Fold each of these.
Amino acid sequence: QLRLVDSGGGLVQAGGSLRLSCAASGRTLSTYLMGWFRQAPGKEREFVAVITWSGGRSYYADSVRGRFTISRDNAKSTVYLEMNSLKPEDTAVYYCAAASTIWAMTQGNPDYWGQGTQVTVSS
């Protein structure tokens, strides 16, 4: 069983920055594709970013590309989401996710979820 603990959320003004962290335990992180999703009030959960097993490649939703950066440190069993130039529409609960396959991640059906961390961006 892989356990994911999300942290780093908070309240920030538009244009500001936050860094989210996802600490993993229980299994070797490098065997999982890692990603971030978010869910705004009244909306469905949506994909934000994904990073490959070794961290060599990353992909982003159009809405965050150029502003957000996903990274991972397998030695520390931690995944990060650096968020810059935040906008009010980025307000959501952000969830870390781990998947064994690309298909599972892209379908929004990963093997494991973090508990979520709230990000609120004020205008």
Amino acid sequence: QVQLVESGGGLVQPGGSLRLSCAASGRIFSIEGMGWYRQAPGKQRELVATITSAGGTTYVDSVKGRFTISRDNARNTMFLQMSSLKPEDTAVYYCNARITLATPTLTVNNYWGQGTQVTVSS
């Protein structure tokens, strides 16, 4: 009923920038909290940044000052602007959203995107 589709990943040199997007589509009534997670090879998935429907944000310490999370509520889209990228930022990045469905019962579910690869290497 709902899909989250990430885009914008790729290969970038250290110090470079990338902008990830996450577009939600389907039977959406509203989207509450959204977030970006990442998972590097051999490591557990970690929370990178979150944003509330009102625009409040949080970041993991390792990306503070380098990454900026934002969202366009009218387009049901979330972004992650990543700057000053480091090799340790290399991972598959996933978007996550808590969504109220446009159904008679207004069911609330947690959804994940399929992931987009970010590789930081010279």
Amino acid sequence: QVHLEEAGGGLVQAGGSLRLSCAASGRSSTTGWFRQAPGKDREFVATSFRGSRTYYSDSVKDRFTISRDNAKNILFLQMNNLVPEDTAIYYCAADDRLIQSSLRRAAEYDYWGQGTQVTVSS
């Protein structure tokens, strides 16, 4: 069992930055971030696949950076140049059995945090 806890959300103006963190109680080979805006499905943001390769959605690529502090077992999401469309609840997710073709699908992840709200004002 893996417990995940996110932190770092908040209110920021468009063009600003935030850094989210996700502290994990156990280790998983793949950890990532998803987000869910009101009335929308949970969508893939970024993932660190098996601790080495990183993947991003097209909407955040070149603005967001995912990283892991393996010593402290913390996952980060650095978000720069934020836009109002980034407003959502951001969730940390983890799994040990994902294959590359599945890493963008929320249903494939076994463990989830409670989420942290990110609001970007225009």
Amino acid sequence: QLQLVESGGALVQPGGSLRLSCAASGFPLDYYAIGWFRQGPQKEREGVSCIEGSDGSTYYTDSVKGRFTISRDKSKNTVYLQMNSLKPEDTDVYYCAAAWRAPCSTRNYDYWGQGTQVTVSS
């Protein structure tokens, strides 16, 4: 059973930066696609970024390209989301999720973390 724990969410001013962490336990992340999603009140869940387990290919939704960077540290079994030039519209709860032996295009994520709040406000 894979367990995911997010951390790093905070209140930050517009233009600021945060780094979210998704720490996994129970199985190496090499076998999972890891996606970052976000969702706010009365909003649909949105896929933000993903990194594939097989070769580390990365993907981003258009609204965060050039600002966010996803990466992984195999030694720590952790995936990170570096968020720069944050905007108020980035405010949401951010979740990481894992899909077993699947590409980032999958709709079937097997495991989810509990979420971490990111608030961008002056």
